[in-house]
Amino acid sequence: MNPEEESSLSLEMEETGLILTESSTRLPSGTSTALLKSYTYATPLPTELEPDQECILGVDEAGRGPVLGPMVYGICYCPLSKQDELADMGFADSKTLKEDERDNLLDVIMSRPDLIGWSVRVLSPMDISNSMLRKEKYNLNALAHDTTIQLIRDTLALGVNLKEVYVDTVGPPESYQRKLENLFPSITKIVVAKKADSKYPIVSAASICAKVTRDDVLRHWIFAETGMGDTLSRKFGSGYPSDPKTVSWLKSNMDPVFGYPNIVRFSWQTCKTLLETSGKTVRWPDDDESNSQPRITALFGQSGDGNAELAKQRRQYSTFATKNNPRPPPQLMQDMALRGVVDF
What we know:
- This protein is 37% helix and 12% strand.
- Helix 3 (99-110) crosses helix 8 (201-219).
- A hairpin with an 8-residue loop joins strand 2 and strand 3.
- The longest helix has 19 residues, at 201-219.
- The chain has a six-stranded mixed beta sheet with strand order 1-4-3-2-5-6, sandwiched between helices.
- The chain is elongated and about 90 Å long.
- It is α/β, with parallel strands linked by helices.
């Protein structure tokens, strides 16, 4: 993630960091193991959902900008005929709510399995970083789009008759909406909009599912690195790169050789900068060998070009022997005083 993305996303930073209390009740969408691989949690279908009953679905995310922890995409859906009832439950954009307010609203969602279905896709910091550092360009927007598409497809695969879908945009909303419309022609209405989490209650509900799940995973974070769970501080701050508490945690918990534990998104520019300025330079054997080997194309140039060194390399690495330039026998044969057939 470049500094411009970090700066814009950091505007969403909350004033206080996550409250860490070990006695908190675990969510079913959380995890009890180290988060090394991304996973999906989905509730059963609403118990009163009738076959082929038309439904509305919202999509939103939590944790796009932080340098620490997972990014979580959430969906929430209910019968289209019940959307007014859902709106009366008081959902709002999760970023405008305090932590206990978000927790209470998720309790409301979980108390209505007859009406509401929901799902989250929890993307691990390792998977996020690996995706962004791939040789083929695959940025955070592409990852977000693919995650949204996967969640919608999974819901359709359950037999849910989706007729309206509302998505909080990532990138230009117009092109994103066209992309989804082409992928899901059976869905009558797809709306991709900025600030959809504050405009559409179904997206606000999805925002609650995503944000509370992310908070739960961070609150109960399990370090995969042996022995670190008892030694590392959990005072992360908000997790955003512009938060002084977060930056302080990163500086205090960076190994100069091995970098960071698995909670950190090491592809973020904040981490790259700290590693470059405070980490140790590691030289790999291949780095030295690459300087001594000629480029393969250099072995196929025209002879007699006046470059003595290049001609020497051609002779040294050529696989063909000539009368004037016999190929030396392998070192093993030289050591054992053996002769080749061509020598007789």
